Amino acid sequence: MINLQTVYEDTKYAFHLKLLAGNKGLSNIMNWVYLLEDINNFSFLKESELIITTGLGYSGEQWLIQFIKSLIGHHSCGLIINNGKYIHSIPNSVIDLCNKESFPLFTMPWDVHIAELTRDYCTRIFHNETIKQSLKDAFTYILTKPEDTYTYEHTLKAHNFQLDSNYCCILINVAKQLQNNYAFLQHIEILCRNNINHLTYNYTLFYYKKRMMLILQDSPKNDIVELMKSLHIKLIKQSSNCQPYIGIGSIVKGVRNLTKSYQQAYAALMVSMKGEHPIRLFDNIGIYKILLSIKDMNILEEYYKDILSPIIVYDQAHKSDYLTTLRLYIKYNASVQKVADETFSHRNTINYRIRKIKELLHSDLSTLEERFPYQMAFYILDIWDDNLVIQ
Questions:
Q1: Across residues 63-88, what is the average pLDDT?
Q2: pLDDT reading at 387 higher than 80
Q3: Residue 211 and residue 119: Cα distance in Å, rounded?
Q4: Which residues have CB under 8 Å from 139's CB, separation 6+?
Q5: pLDDT tens across 302-334, in order?
Q6: DSSP single-letter state for residue 249
Q7: Tens digits of per-residue pLDDT, 26-54?
Q8: How far apart are CA 175 and CA 177, in angstroms?
């Protein structure tokens, strides 16, 4: 995916392009070029395509207005009118529409061959995709073998990523039920790119383990936080199916330490998905930060199993969900009424479950001191692998 403004600036003289309107949309991503003449063929359009038309079907001002409105509705990134034969001038109403919608509108003289522009632009897109893939390969390799600088050094330096720069890793998780939907994931990637490609510092963005990973180079912490807040709002606004959660790792010195920032971003993401805040910084996740600083994760695993295994085993055997009841009971400081309210259950039902839980745990859970070990176990559960099963 390539920035429309970059392509325009690089080729406006070669193809005699003139930007008439919609300059605020130049930062949009262009992922393909499509020649469209028939207003009935909009179903073939894909998001962020740059449309070219000669106006073969042009029948007047209203035709062109409707044509452009349909392109906007299909999230095209812009329109080039190859004018001079079918369309000779662009009405002011069309220019006003494109400016209002921040939809880039260009004209190109009739004597410029569309095939030449298409070939040039497609070549640029393919080249950009090659760079994108090589950076993805390099950074994913770094996450597994950061000490092997020889393998990835050339690729990074070729694209202005320096080995000793500061790096921050950010993970973005979208709707879980749509993580295998390629069209949806591509839509989210385009939204992300459209909202961050104004950045002046170096970055790369790609999917890693079904999550969007953003790696920023030499970006100030305050800028990162504000950028993610803005992105979160826009993702929700621009995609009805998107339920974004964002985890932000700390800024680390040197690309060799990127794995640390990634692990922190993952931990912050897990915490954000479990709690009430959709954006979490590792530096601000409290007790979780302490737990994740323990190098021997077996200690956390053993603690988790020792404390909660009676409930987990019982739930697995009886297909119940006492673990959730216990979590809420701890969360609401042993208030049966609040647990009943949140689970839409009768108070007597919750009382029965709590009695059973106390029997299983051999604990009365009546004091803060008795409840604290279980609270700590749930903190560990929040950052643990979702696939952890008591054997």
A1: 94
A2: no
A3: 33
A4: 152, 204, 206, 213, 215, 258
A5: 998 899 999 999 999 999 999 999 999 999 999
A6: P
A7: 989 999 999 999 877 788 888 899 999 99
A8: 6
Tokens 């994931």 -> residue: 185
Under 8 Å between Cβ of 132 and 215:
no
Tell me the pLDDT tens digit for each residue of 93-138: 999 999 999 999 999 999 999 999 999 999 999 999 999 999 999 9
Question: Strand (E) positions, the chain?
Answer: 2-3, 18-21, 29-30, 32-35, 49-53, 78-83, 105-109, 166-173, 203-208, 211-217, 245-248, 252-253, 279-281
The rounded distance, in Å, linking the Cα atoms of 266 and 366 is 34
- Signed CA dihedral, 47, 49, 50, 56: sign only: negative
Among 52, 74, 65, residue whose Cα is nearest residue 100: 65
Which distant-in-sequence residues (6+ apart) come within 8 Å of 97 by Cβ? 21, 65, 68, 69, 103
What are the chain's domains?
Answer: 2-112 (3.40.1390.20), 123-285 (3.30.70.270), 297-385 (1.10.10.2840)
Q: What angle do CA 331, 335, 336 make, to 5 degrees?
A: 115
Q: Tokens standing for 166?
A: 């500061």
Give the span between the Cα atoms of 215 and 35, in whole angstroms. 35
Q: Report the candidate in 282, 313, 311, 250 with the shortest Cα–Cα distance to residue 383.
A: 282
Whole-angstrom Cα distance, residue 283 to residue 70? 45
H or E element, residue 272? helix 258-274
Q: In 3D, which of 130, 129, 68 has the Cα closest to residue 97?
A: 68
CA angle (358 as vertex; 355, 364 as ends), nearest 5: 105
Cα separation of 271 and 279, whole Å? Answer: 9
220-275: pLDDT as tens digits: 999 999 999 998 988 888 777 778 899 999 999 999 999 999 989 988 898 888 77
Q: C-alpha distances in angstroms, 79 versus 11, 93, 280, 287, 311?
A: 15, 16, 39, 52, 60
Copy the structure tokens of residue 268: 């912050």
pTM of the model: 0.79
Structure tokens at 23: 């300059």
Distance CA 200, CA 221 (A): 15
